[in-house]
Amino acid sequence: MKRKIGIAALRLRAVRPRVVVAALLPALIVAACGSTPMRESTGEYFDDAAITAKVKTAFVGDSQVKAADISVETFKGTVQLSGFADNTDEIRRAVDLAARVRAVKLVENDIQLKAPAQ
Fold it and tell me: Is 48 in contact with 73 (CB distance < 8 Å)?
């Protein structure tokens, strides 16, 4: 014998998935915005983009550093410099300028000296 289901029970069954999704959605959003050791949170991403822009601006405004030859990447406040410089003074100046930017936690220097012209 089949059991009859009332309209109220049908409505309740239709609402349940929506209620579950509505209850879990905020938790999923918060989890997606969180950071892990290998991934930045949304806020950290924007903070790092601002740090990168400030370091590049400092390079452009300095006569000793050739900004076009040095790349800047930032991850969780750690700035990585890479590229090529004409001399060790330029490398030191680039590291010093990057370290002076507010919110920089560490500067990793991977800048290489250019090979002498032959």
Answer: no
Give all domains of the chain, ordered by start, each with its CATH number: 42-113 (3.30.1340)
State whether residue 108 is helix, strand or coil. Answer: strand
Q: What is the pTM of this model?
A: 0.69
Burial environment of residue 17 by CB neighbours within 10 A (0 to 12, 13 to 18, 19 or more)? exposed
Whole-angstrom Cα distance, residue 20 to residue 4? 25
Q: Is 33 helix (H, G, I), strand (E, B) or coil?
A: helix
Q: Which tens digits make up the pLDDT trace of 56-102?
A: 999 999 999 999 999 999 999 999 999 999 999 999 999 999 999 99
Q: Assess whether pLDDT exceeds 70 at residue 33.
A: no
Q: What are phi and psi of 2, to 5 degrees?
A: -80, 145
